[in-house]
Model the fold of this input.
Amino acid sequence: MTSDDILMDVTFSESVPMGGTYANGALVWNTPHEFTVDFTSHRSPTHDGDAHDVLVVARMKIPTSAMFRIVQAMSANIDRYEQQHGRITPGPPKEEP
Done:
C-alpha cells in the first residue's frame, strides 16, 4: 500500500447486484452542475440495419467536481491495464457474453 492508497469499507446497496451489471456503452451529457452517464447494453442492429436496440442498465448523476477525479482514476487504470495487457484498440460494442 502506498501513501496515495485509501482504505475504504465498501458495501453494496440492496439494489446493486454484487456481480455488477454488464454495459458495453455509455451516453454522457452535462449541465453546469453535474454529469449524467447512462451505461448501456447495445444489442444487434434492427432489421433495417440503421438503428440499434440500446438498453440503459444504469444511470449515474455525478457532480462536476467528482467527475474530474473519476476521469483521472480511469485514465490511470487504463495506463496500468495497457502496461500489463497491451494497447486497447477501440472497436464496435461487443455483444453481452
About this structure: Strands lie at 25-30, 34-45, 52-63. The first helix runs from residue 64 to 85.
